Amino acid sequence: MTKNTTSRSEFGSQIRKSPYFEATQRYGCTGYSVYNHMYIPRSYGDPVANFWNLVNDAILCDVAVERQVEITGPDAAKFVQLLTPRNLAKCKIGQCKYVFITSAEGGIINDPVLLRLGENHFWLSLADSDVLLWAKGVQIHSGMDVEIREPDVSPLQLQGPKSRDIMCAIFGDWVKDLRYYRCVEFDLGGIPLVISRTGWSSELGYEIFLRDSAFGDDLWERIMKIGAPLGLKVGHTSTIRRIEGGMLSYITDMNIENNPFEMGWDRLVSLDMEADFIGKQALQQIKAKGVSQLFVGVEIDGDPMATPNGRHWPVLIGDEVVGKITSAVYSPRLKKNIGLAMLKIEHTALGTSAVAQTPGGNQNVTIVPKPFYDPEKKITSG
Fold first, then answer.
1. 261 and 233 belong to one structural domain
2. Residues facing 254 on adjacent strands
3. The whole model's pTM is what?
4. 88: which of 26, 31, 50, 137 is 20 to 30 A away, CA to CA?
5. 164 and 216 together in one domain
6. pLDDT tens digits, 152-187
7. Residue 260 domain-assigned?
């Protein structure tokens, strides 16, 4: 008898599953990775097909791994400001903000989207790091009256040029009036939601935050039943479109050793505001001294990359290592290999030539402007 050696994936109980996990299995997910201690769908087959579905039609993505840190209580607004160098004084109820969470040394702990749901009610919609634990540690020493927890909230992303029409068909024509980086609470036939005009795609899109995981499968199927005839496909976050848009990926492109100035996000650091925040003194010193490295866009010569880079590639000028390519992919729309890189600042002028050490051999690279596509962000904000 021949022994069956066919491998099968096992999903351990120590890694959490989203309330949409079974749906992603039914709809053909072929690969997952781990993000915020949860499984996230990474493949439904061809990533290029997923990219074209996103930019031509619309895709539904399980992004429940974007866990929420909920901050409430009389001092909630003051506490949230303590966590971030972005000035939140004018952040209104129903507004969202892209922010950095910084360490005492000015390093980036996370780059979440902040949602303000009430006068003293905030969510931090997280990238991949343990901000819940960080915030609870800060709370102990802050002397502020706040409650911090991870609520039962699981977001979906519905992204792409057809997303507005699909959202209107599901939720109503009021969606047309939902402005960029705004959010509203909504009840879909007994399913409690928050809907925001945000997303990690560089395309027009929305996020649908489910506030009760028991409705996960029901919500998914309701969306697909209405959306599929209008062009909605099941998909996953697109590395191709993310890099085209110059969007940062925490851990991949930056970590706690990097600061916002290196990443080119000076406008999210308000050093002159009266309010204090963690890392303020360090960031003032960094700003005064100037950064030694900078995050840039690159074009990479050679044949089209078959898959995105799985690790950082050293970048050399002559015999000197001047930095690393953090993200790289072939764009079928631009018909070139593009990437994001952290380089010594003296080598970041546009047009600078260098060499990347890739697994396939040395490749010439050129420093170019980023984002690579829609630099004025007309697609997302239109």
1. no
2. 250
3. 0.95
4. 137
5. yes
6. 999 999 999 999 999 999 999 999 999 999 999 999
7. yes
What residues contact residue 31 under an 8 Å CB cut-off, 6+ apart?
Answer: 41, 42, 43
CA distance 47 to 188: 32
Cα dihedral 323, 326, 329, 331 sign: negative
Beta bridge partners of 233: 59
| CA 368/CA 73 separation, integer angstroms | 46
Q: Are residues 255 and 373 in the same domain?
A: yes
CATH code, 298: 2.40.30.110
| Cβ(328)–Cβ(337) below 8 Å | yes
Q: How far apart are CA 39 and CA 63, in angstroms?
A: 9
Note the pLDDT tens digit of each residue in 320-338. Answer: 999 999 999 999 999 999 9
3-state DSSP helix/strand/coil percent for the chain, to nearest 5?
25, 30, 45
Residue 167 domain boundaries: 21-66+153-242
- Domain boundary, last residue among 242, 267, 288: 242
> Tens digit of pLDDT for each residue in 178-233?
999 999 999 999 999 999 999 999 999 999 999 999 999 999 999 999 999 999 99
Q: What is the CATH number of the domain that holds 47?
A: 3.30.1360.120
SS3 of residue 349 by DSSP: coil
